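seq:
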Amino acid sequence: MSSKANYSAEEIRKDKPGFSPTRSIIETPFYGNNVIKIQTLKEAYELAKKSPGTIVTDIPIYRGQEFGLDKDAKVLLFNDGAVTGRYSTARKIANEPAVDCSALDKILMDAVYETRWKTLYHAEVFVGLDPEFMVKAHLLIPKGEENIMYNWMLNFQYMSDEYVRMYRSSRPVGNGNEPDIYLFSDPQWSGLDRAGIDLSCLSDPKCLCYFNTDHNCAAILGMRYFGEHKKGTLTMAWALANRNGYASCHGGQKKYTLKDGSKYVASVFGLSGSGKSTLTHAKHDGKYEVTVLHDDAFIINTDTCVSVALEPTYFDKTQDYPAGCEDNKYLLTVQNCGCTLDMNGKIQLVTEDIRNGNGRAIKSRLWSPNRVDKIAEPVNAIFWIMKDPTIPPVVKLNGASLASVMGATLATKRSTAERLAPGIDPNALVVVPYANPFRTYPLANDYAKFKKLVEEKNVDCYIINTGDFMGKKVKPKDTLGIMEAILDGKASFHQWGPLTDIQIFDWEGFIPDINDEDYRSQLKARMEERLKFVANTAVLKEGYDKLPEDALMAIQKVVDELGL
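struct:
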């Protein structure tokens, strides 16, 4: 099996993989006499359906029996309250400087103790959908949080007969030394003020996301937004994959079959709301045969360039899918949306973010008609999606160092999927390396992985701007037109002014004059911000995320060539 669940007596030692204080604190309560093991997705559905506050809509789940549900299963709606986005402030990551694991472990020990008065559910899923990479994940969560558990089992792969057989035949990850993933969650936790507990180690005393990814375990306390549980599980899977030769990807990937029969595999990287899902699922009016791997979470083997999806379903925004939209046929569950009665007295959804921002739904894999769990053909291109107003709709990057460091300095705007701490400007341009705010290992690891893909595997690298370019909106038709021109070999890239390592494809309506002093100074300022970010990696967090010297030099060269 791919991850390890059982140990001989000789393996149960403090210096062995899978054994640490945090891991022991998290795994132990799974075996308590107050724990109910959830065996099937049907069981989880019935519990969620009966959970107080659940709204059973009159929307049938399309072909639900194919996903382990009864034929008459309905879409369930559950709302979390005021918090409808992820909260990065609460994240604490073991091994990072200034993270006091001893203090966090004590908080966690008492949080576990408090759950002795509660009935807990234990659910299991697979993360990774191909024998090349599959690991087992466990969730422990209190009674009353059935919707989180049900969504978690839907989002990842529940233990169907097919996938159980696949898992048994899958190759061990990490030479059989990687333990199962364990996630302990208590959304009802609200801080513990008692002797022996010091909450000063928390950024917010009311909640905590605590990761020890070296030992594949995490705890989520005081947080009921489902996205914390989804991304918390992926955080551990991505860290595990990173240790074992994969590039961990928060993005989308698809395969095109071109008119001559050749294949083109494109990976797009961007934060929620950047357009990565739109690009991943775009059908291009039937011009190409399109196969989708996933639009949010996958990994790339940096030796073979094979890609594997980590989830079967899609956690998608509902703001662009009004009532009656054809895409809503594929809904499985909905979170943080309204509902009302239609003309027939049936309960229907109120989407379009009318109730609140970041309304969400889990959609079945049927949403993508040509969905696969693995793309065996090697990756051809990486597209960094940025919302930087000085970057044209598309540029091509030459040189592995520049290609990778531009991913490490990916600039974008925050989305409604995030809950921001007080005082944070939601409209400010921010750098989110590789569009993955869920990394728990040094940034240099990702830098090396993506540099290898470009340098050794000849993967092309582009930046596409899906935001505004100098005040003019880049529309989806522009981005899709650019993608099609690249696919059809009609995109004529040429050196962009003095920049020897950046090429531009002139797209009508968005052709910059790099000799214009005002524009050039703004572009240079943005590049200098990237340069400062890379330089600061050597200082911030005691150099934990320091990037190699060649990364700094690649950005410095761009700044120098812009002159002024």
